[in-house]
Amino acid sequence: MLLSVVMPAYNAGKTIKESIDSILNQSFKDFEFIIINDGSTDNTEDVILSYGDKRIRYLKNDVNRGIIYTLNRGIIESKGKYIARMDSDDISLSTRFEKQIAILESRPNVIVCGTLISPFGSKTKKTNLTKLQLHNLKMKEQLAITTCFAHPTVIIRKFVLLSNDIKYDENFKNAEDYKLWIDLMEYGEYYTVSEKLLLYRLSDSQISQTNNPITEKSVSKCRELYLLKFVDKFVVSDIRQYGINIHLITKIKKQTDNKKIIEAAYLSLNNYGLKEIIYYIFSLDLFSLGYMVAMRFCKRLIKGKMAIYEF
């Protein structure tokens, strides 16, 4: 079997039928579909059991254990060469798996393959997942600040997880995918198909998760882990103790040319004054980091500190 699709489901009775149908109607057919009911109290189970498709493997958690436990259980239970993610409120376009598997089968160095998304649902909510990079190096640079995949679009090469004992980390709640991409980045290439192959549902509860203290703590820990791959522990210790100043930026630049790390440092300065402006201009970072970074730097000059690196 080539592919195992893993879908966690918790109180998804209103949306899961569309999601299941979108998987069963894929043009690519060689897959098992593992649906794990994570202690739902609504009609989620009834909807799942209404299907007679033999590709569906229905599993239940004894209680609500959360998405991280459930995803790891799905990986353990899977039989396929690849693991595909799917959420119980999103919709995959019919050629999604066909196009992703074609990439993975023809490019053995690619270990994770995602796609672009089309957001739908809430008319007032937005997501940064529409601004993803498409190519390996740019995607991995993006991890200095945020995730590089829309999580429910990915297909992962399973042996890379098993051979390196990598799984979703319970200590990174609400940022478990971000942590996973940081853990996997040294083992192969990342790739995003330049087509919108998943309809990504936006909801009020989903948005609120991205702005709570638990998420912020997990994201900060991810950024710290990423930074430690490029600079020594003493730089990170200085950031924890003193925050970021121009002297520390010069240290960072001596240890890495990763532009996203340098960008994040500039956007996390303790102070935005004349000294910082002069250095930013005459070091030529104003030009090398680009227009968008300059705009965000100017915004901080006006509004004050809005740190990205704050451990």
UniProtKB/TrEMBL annotation:
InterPro entries: Glyco_trans_2-like, Nucleotide-diphossugar_trans. It comes from the Bacteria. GO terms for molecular function: hexosyltransferase activity. Residues 4-157 form the Glycosyltransferase 2-like domain. Pfam families: Glycos_transf_2 (PF00535). Coiled coil: none annotated. The chain crosses the membrane at residues 277-298. Keywords: Membrane, Transferase, Transmembrane, Transmembrane helix. This is Glycosyltransferase family 2 protein.
